Amino acid sequence: MTSIPTRLGLVQRVLPEYRIPFFELLAESCEGGLSIFSGEARPHEAIQTAQTPPKVNLTPANNRHFFRGKFYLCWQGGLLRWLKIWNPQVLILEANPRYLSSPSAVRWMRQHHRPVIGWGLGAPTGSSSKAGIRRSFQRSFLKQFDALITYSQTGFEQYRQLGFDPERIFSAPNAAVPKPARAPVVREPAYPGGKAVLLFVGRLQARKRVDVLLQACASLPETMQPRLWIIGDGPEKPGLEKLAQTVYPQAEFLGAKYGTDLEPFFDQADLFVLPGTGGLAVQQAMAHGLPVIVGEADGTQADLVRPQNGILVQPGSVEALRTALQSLLSDVTRLRRMGDESCRIVAEEINLENMVLAFARAVNCVLEK
Fold this sequence. Notes:
Elements: E1 8-14, H1 20-29, E2 34-39, E3 57-60, E4 62-66, E5 73-77, H2 79-86, E6 90-94, H3 102-111, E7 116-120, H4 131-142, E8 147-150, H5 153-161, E9 169-171, E10 197-201, H6 210-218, E11 227-231, H7 237-247, E12 251-255, H8 263-268, E13 271-274, H9 281-287, E14 292-295, H10 300-304, E15 310-313, H11 318-329, H12 332-348, H13 352-367
Helix pairs in contact: 1-13, 6-7, 6-11, 9-12
């Protein structure tokens, strides 16, 4: 793995539990150490935040949240104090203009003649009448960074189209687990007990569209209807359980599970489904040799989900999800072959090791400036 020959600082609005393996691996690469500055999420977000990782210096931020939805803003109190104490040689910030304290961090780094890297999903402008104004604002916002790290090729193209130097844009595949350390799970050529097992893992929020998953399963022919395991917790859980009683009572809500507690569920499932947006659990499922059905969203899914290992569907469409489920569940041989391809993608392309490597390249690039 490429080393990072510097003291690195990284600012996160919140530090979710699922990011800990990545940050620990990143810390191992930092010769001068890694410190993360992050705060707490809003209660309704249902984000499982991490305790202090053993290999990472973690400083709590005093997050102050303003408004909601497209008007949301966040101020992180204590940021400059942390910068003065940690004194990073390179700083990585989330490339999000909604975080009001970030400009002060950039100014501090500039005063000390040190580089700043932005880390973000990309910069979609849309096609509305205000798209030109939005593009102008995004160009101006991105100029403050010496390099950019993005999750996907979609994000890479969006930054490039805004005029950012493509040699200073680094694609870090969005991963939650490393390369598989064990042999792939060998699944039977037929469904055990005659029924396929569908698995969902994630926070139970409206944007995950678990309601669509319940309805799509119910709309399948009765002989094809699978067992459905829903793992996770969140604000939508009571409503989803009530909906399931009416629509798909065979659905099993198994609560929130993390780390090794998830392993047996991934291993026993036949297909992973995320009908809405987000979800690093997709890559986890692929590491366990599962084909995937995922809702199209911010572009990161397109790198993970290909015709050889899964299907991208329109989020919110019961009909699109039902069609995808029927297509895959009706052909077990194809399903197993797609699972093998999922495992290969994680082993060779999209994993924590390659994600850290992209960060290392970005940091080394700005140090050479």
